[in-house]
């Protein structure tokens, strides 16, 4: 079986949800518009954006928890539309996930032992002894005591639960983990511990991450590539090392400005951030960012800018860049 | 176990649990507890009022009411437990299917529930029984198969909210089958409300069984049930009040106990309750 160099590839994916607004009138609202991206082995891709911009939907498309309306999803070069059941099953375990809320991501009626063993039994082999060995080893690696194996999730703290969730994802030796805001429900000190853990695993076993977050520092800490989304569209893709030295999409600039710096002498928001995110239901016809953009022109109202390659390390969807 | 402990700390819960336990003991050990044969006719002791010899008096044929009531509790509990078993099984199965798969499956099951709910239960049962031979088994099946709609709706709603929880999504990510997700992840977490409705259902089933027996299409004499004892006493209510009053009280207390147990469980199992 020839393996593609990309773990996951997404081509021109559209995803909409239906909302019933009045009686029988159905309205479509697009969570993703024409999104394409590729994830290579060992790479960490960070997705930044406001709530409701389609970050989580994108994660679910990658995990095949949601099917796209249009467009294609490839796992290891295999199109999910035409994949055989057996192949699907063998690839399924290669892409795992850790979600935001550590309180809802563990089944409250399972012991930690069973939480960790279930994926192992399903994906690897039905061998309790080996499974337990692996579970203990992973608990050790994520910094938890072996005693928790016989506990129920309610006995653990948020940070401990998130470690268990990470260990569960690692039980099946995945190549890619989708991290949907893995730290935003945790305390600051625990956030940094979890981030450290994630970085260690990346360096040690060459894990790839698809990191969804709205926190700039988290994304900066882990990512190789940073993707900025706005209202269901990718507005910028940029290599991290390159990030500080180039000009950005107006929305990215706005995000950077809005970021708080505790040691700055300047007032936190030197320029006023104007406007609200337009409703996804009444999507503007031109550029999605028009209503809040400082550099808008007349043409931005008529046409929507496509993602253009600026150079090998940066792609921007804006007419002025 | 935790539930039992909390139940014992709850005043009403403890009382209802005690009543149900006593009833269960009476029903299980009926042959050892009943002082007389429930079918034993004794012409010399017709319509005796309650006394030490006959605790709850005797009926028109001189049978001991206390003994008959103990045997009747057997029938009533048996019928209600099996009926609730049937209704919970059907309800959980259909509710889980509808909630988990959604779409067209959900539509079909929900419409079916709506149709079933259009008929008043008691008339539906009357209509079915009119075609079938009344026996204890048919009564169990008929009560069970006409009272599952509430459970189905409850389970459906519960599953709908549970399946969006992260641990279910993750189970899908590591490739757990739908069967496993429903039975290992969803239903165990939907157990508390199912327990509550089963407990409430037990009271209802006893009530329906008594009503059917009262109408003469339930448990057939001479087999005693609280319902048919009630109607047997109706004729002689003016001279022998004990024939109707005691079975009526038994129904009242039992139904009340099950209903209160259900409500206590609801209290205990509701995570949002204030302690």
Overview features:
heterodimer; A: 321 residues; Rossmann fold; 4-stranded antiparallel β-sheet; 9 helices; 12 strands; globular; B: 275 residues; mainly alpha; 12 helices
Characterize the structure shown.
The complex is a heterodimer of chains A (321) and B (275). Chain A contains 9 helices and 12 strands. Chain A is of the alpha/beta class and 321 residues long. Chain A has a domain at 6-42 and 49-93 and 229-316: Rossmann fold (3-Layer(aba) Sandwich), CATH 3.40.50.300. In chain A, helix 3 (112-123) crosses helix 4 (128-141), helix 3 (112-123) packs parallel to helix 5 (158-170) and helix 4 (128-141) packs across helix 5. The longest helix of chain A has 18 residues, at 188-205. Chain B is mostly helical and 275 residues long. Chain B has one domain (2-35, 60-269): Orthogonal Bundle (MetI-like fold). Helix content of chain B is 73%, strand content 0%. In chain B, helix 4 (65-101) packs antiparallel against helix 5. The mean pLDDT of chain B is 86. At the A-B interface, strand 6 and helix 3 of A face helix 9 and helix 10 of B.
